Amino acid sequence: MAIGNNNEIEKKLWAAADQLRANSQLSSQEYSVPVLGLIFLRYADHKFTDAEKEITKKQPTGSRRKIGKADYQAKGVMYLPEEARYSHLLNLPEGKNIGKAVNDAMKAIEAENDELKGVLPQTYTRFENDTLVALLKQFSNIPMDMEGDVFGKIYEYFLGKFAASEGKKGGEFFTPTSIVKLIVDVIEPFHGRIYDPACGSGGMFVQSARIVEEHGQRPTDRLTFRGLEKNATTIRLAKM
C-alpha cells in the first residue's frame, strides 16, 4: 500500500481497518480495543528494534555479554519476548491460529512488563484469521522513517474515530487532540506532577510528554502522571 504524508496514512489505514470490520461479525466496540492493541504492538516493536540496534552498536567488539531485558529498560523501552515481536506474528505460516498467537503475544508482554498486567487486549480469537492477517499487514505499512510521532498520531486518529462511533451513544465525548494540544502548549508542563481528574485515554499526558521530548528530555525523568477515569476500557487505552 503506497502511502504518503501523515494525514494520508491515518485515513488510508482507517479506511482499510473499517472495511475489514464491516466485513466481519464484530461490533465497533468489540473491534476497537483489539485494533488499537495491534497499533500499540507495532509501535512497541518499532521502539524495541531501534533500541536493539543502538544497544548492539555500543557493545564492545568481541563482547560475549548477552543483551537482556535490563538493557532495554535502561533505554526506557518496553521489553518484547520473541513470540511478541511484530515480525514473528506477521510471518506466521498459513493455517496457524493467528488469534491465539496474538493473544499469546499480549500475555507474554504482560508477563515481562508488570505495569501492563491486565491491560492488553486478549480477545483476538474472536477475529477471523483472514481479518487479523490483513490488519497485521496494513499496520506493517506504517513508515518507520517519517518525522514526528507517526504512531501517536495514527493511534489518536483511530481512537477519535472509534470514540465518535461509540462514546456519544453512552454520553461520553472524546476531547479533540487539537484542543488538548492547545491546552498543553499554553501551560507548558516541562516538569513536575500532572493530574487529570477526567483523563480519558490519556491525551493530556501524551501531549505533555511531547513537550518534554521537544526539549530533548525523557518524559519519565521529568514528569509524573496521575489520572482518574471511570470507564474500565478507557483506562486500559490510557495505560497503553
Question: What does this protein look like?
Answer:
The chain has about 240 residues and is mainly alpha-helical. The chain folds into 2 domains: about 140 residues, Ferritin (Up-down Bundle); about 70 residues, Vaccinia Virus protein VP39 (Rossmann fold, 3-Layer(aba) Sandwich), CATH 3.40.50.150. The protein contains 11 helices and 2 strands. The protein has a two-stranded parallel sheet. The longest helix is centred in the first third of the chain and has 31 residues. The chain starts with 5 loop residues before the first helix and ends with a helix.
Order of helices and strands: HHHHHHHHEHHEH
Main CATH class of the largest domain: Mainly Alpha
What average pLDDT do the residues reach?
84
Into which percent range does the helicity of residues fall?
Answer: 55-70%
H/I helix tally: 11
Number of beta-strand segments: 2
Q: What distance separates the N and C termini?
A: 27 Å
What does the overall shape look like? Answer: globular
CATH superfamily of the largest domain: N6 adenine-specific DNA methyltransferase, N-terminal domain
Tally the structural domains.
2
Topology diagram in text:
Elements: H1 6-22, H2 28-58, H3 69-74, H4 86-90, H5 98-112, H6 129-140, H7 150-166, H8 177-187, E1 192-196, H9 203-214, H10 219-222, E2 223-227, H11 232-239
Parallel strand pairs: 1-2
In short, what is this structure?
With 240 residues, the protein is mainly alpha-helical. The protein contains eleven helices and two strands. The chain has two domains: 6-148, N6 adenine-specific DNA methyltransferase, N-terminal domain (Ferritin, Up-down Bundle), CATH 1.20.1260; 175-240, Rossmann fold, CATH 3.40.50.150.
